[in-house]
Amino acid sequence: MSECRHTVVLRCVDGLLRDALANWIASLPGYLVAGAAATGDGLLRLCTLRSPDTAVVELRSAAPEELEFVGELRAVRCEPHIVGLHRALDARSLAFLHHAGVHRLVSTRFGVAGLRDALAEADEGWRPVVPGHGLSARELEILALICAGCSAAEIAGELGISPHTVTNHKRRIFAKLDVQSRTQATAEVGRLGMRLPGQQTRRPNGEAPRNLTKRERDILDSIARGESVRQTAQALGIAIKTVQSEQRQLFSKLSARNRPQALTNARGYGLVDSN
């Protein structure tokens, strides 16, 4: 089978439906789900970072803000084929959405058959996205290792490149994600529902910890927002040393050694929302 795969991103507000759709599409031969966002802003960011071939979008109305969003989606550089999912919109609303730029509208009342047909239709006009923008394949590899808590030296050893090269890639990754730290990068990956190399089915070993204290959950929520240790201390009104002490216990329970790995493992256990 060809190494080229049809890349899909999606937007769906409901977390369970979002995950179910993403996993179902990813199970189809020849398809790769690059990310699944809860918001329009998140989907637009995914299109910029991953240059998808198709965007699957849950549409609940033909309100002005939805029509504006479709227009913004049509304007992104990669020009994805837009498949709109709706429950039971009337003909007038469907006409407005089609005029705004949705290529195919599919009712979810009839199961996944309609979506499968829409993806096949998009695949008929598929072409590999021209490289040159978004995250490169190497940057995605490095980002996945950053989220796993690896240091620059460990990433260099894993990929057979120099730490200096890793640092340069990391600088470009942070600029593209508009973040300043590894924790912020990991948080942004979760917010956008990005699927990185090797993470499609990854789950931490063992059972999810069920004995997190309230303070540990507060710290975990702060990490999920991409905050630093100092920002966590300020948000919770406690000393930095207290945060460091409490998060050591949190890391132990999550089998993690730092904030990015703790957040990635917490997501794998279902302790933190993906978006």
Automatic annotation (TrEMBL):
The keyword Nucleotide-binding does not apply. The keyword DNA-binding applies. The lineage of its organism: Bacteria, Bacillati, Actinomycetota, Actinomycetes, Pseudonocardiales. It comes from Kibdelosporangium aridum. Residues 128-193, 205-270 form the HTH luxR-type domain. It comes from the Bacteria. Keywords: DNA-binding, Transcription, Transcription regulation. Gene3D superfamilies: 3.40.50.2300, Winged helix-like DNA-binding domain superfamily/Winged helix DNA-binding domain. GO terms for biological process: regulation of DNA-templated transcription. One of its GO terms (molecular function) is DNA binding. This is DNA-binding response regulator, NarL/FixJ family, contains REC and HTH domains. SUPFAM superfamilies: C-terminal effector domain of the bipartite response regulators. Pfam families: GerE.
